[in-house]
Amino acid sequence: MNKKADLLHENLIFIVLNVIFFVMMILFVQMKGSAIHIAEEETAKQIAIIIDVAKPGTDLEINLKDFFEKAEDKGIKRDKSVRIDNEKNLVVVKGSKDSFYDYSYFNDVNVKFNFKDDYLILEVV
Description:
The chain is an alpha+beta fold. It is 50% helix and 27% strand. It is elongated and about 80 Å long. The protein starts with a helix and ends with a strand.
């Protein structure tokens, strides 16, 4: 009788641990697969790559209409959704209140940025 109880106890622990593992995996996939997280990463990388190839004196307009719409759905205003940190050479993109994505660029330039309608205006100095 003791062996049956031990076997039942071991199986119960195995099942509970498996359920916990699969719930964690599903939550991870759902979080990483969220459209806003992917949009943050994509937008930050695109802006950083554009800054990397830009020369001083370049003015750029980047259409971010799709990203702005997704961010506004999550409660983020356009002027708070993209920030460029010239001291750390970082592009910081915020698409929701609880997430952001930053990506560094290598070009040693100062970038002034502003927003106009659906566009991010970059002035590379």
